[in-house]
Design goal:
Rossmann fold, alpha/beta, about 40% helix, ten-stranded mixed beta sheet, about 300 residues, 2 domains, 10 strands
């Protein structure tokens, strides 16, 4: 992986009873094979301690039925994962609530993969609040796989697309995007958008370059941000896309031509303290391909060079 993860760090997939979760498991299994990483399947039952409005615990028979259902879901997920090929699978059943469990496992995961539905919003275990909690607080990248997205063929040649806006998190997203493109053996499309209303660019970059045309400023900035990574990944062919537009519309359009879109959880234009930006939210709900959302690494204190955002 990038400098943050390596070795035998697992890819984790959240499991529930939905078809969307099985799509996510298949995608996670295929990605684990590419990375030669183990796949951890996690089902969190969220056992209630008490009946609602009551002061007594549920009977053991009720708990046992939940355990039985949970392991059935895990066995189904294991079978789906094996459809991708030979993969090292570890299944985990937990009685704690999903958000609590998934946040915990994210601390030691290469990435956390969740399923979502393309028609009716987020379903099953992976409800809206769970997904938003993960992309806002997880300690590893989070991948949202749309439930109606077809299983990715083994030889998918579509590119990986990364959204770049100059923020620290987009710098980290570049690294993950190069990494995924390299493992998949596909091209990388680097999409950079700007707007004349972007005060940060106008006040800093344009003045720095002595008022040269805005497109020239942005083209120079994009080349500088990609240069170091292209040296690290010389076999990855990069296409630069420079557009005067808001990133959400451009990246949503590219999601229909990509096998994966990579973005930071919050971009340059977000308010301080905002955990999830409008672009990443739009992609989670509307993208036509899986989306990898990069979170800040709060354990790293030297993140400027590789995009750690110490402000979040």
């Amino acid at each position: 992986m990038t400098s943050e993860q390596g070795g035998n760090t697992p890819i984790v997939a959240g499991v529930d009873s939905s078809e969307a979760a099985l799509h996510a498991v298949r995608w996670a299994a295929a990605t684990a094979i590419l990375h030669r990483a183990p796949l951890h399947l996690v089902y969190a039952a969220g056992f209630p301690d008490l009946y609602v409005g009551e002061t007594i615990q549920p009977p053991e028979s009720f708990r046992e039925e939940l355990r039985k259902q949970g392991w059935e879901f895990l066995r189904t997920a294991e079978a789906a994962a094996r459809e991708a090929g030979k993969v090292d699978i570890h299944s985990r059943f937990e009685t704690d609530p999903p958000i609590q469990v998934l946040l915990g496992v994210s601390a030691s995961a290469r990435m956390l993969v969740l399923g979502s539905s393309g028609r009716t919003g987020l379903t099953g275990l992976i409800v809206g609040s769970t997904t938003l909690a993960m992309v806002s607080h997880a300690r590893c990248p989070v991948v949202s796989v749309r439930g109606d997205y077809p299983d990715v063929p083994a030889r998918d040649r579509r590119p990986v697309v990364v959204g770049i806006d100059g923020s620290p998190l987009s710098e980290r997203a570049i690294g993950y995007a190069f990494d995924e493109a390299a493992f998949r053996g596909v091209d990388l499309v680097a999409v950079h958008t700007w707007s004349d209303a972007d005060n940060e660019v106008f006040s800093q970059a344009r003045m720095y370059y002595d008022w040269e045309p805005m497109r020239d400023v942005e083209e120079r900035r994009l080349a500088e941000r990609l240069a170091g990574w292209q040296q690290d990944y010389p076999d990855v062919k990069v296409t630069r896309v420079l557009v005067q537009d808001k990133p959400r519309r451009e990246l949503l359009e590219w999601s229909g031509k990509a096998q994966l879109v990579v973005v930071g959880s919050r971009g340059r234009g977000g308010f301080r303290g905002m955990l999830l930006g409008s672009t990443s939210q739009a992609l989670v709900h509307r993208a036509e391909c899986p989306v990898l959302i990069v979170r800040p690494d709060k354990n790293t204190t030297t993140g400027a060079a590789r995009g750690t955002d110490e402000r979040v």
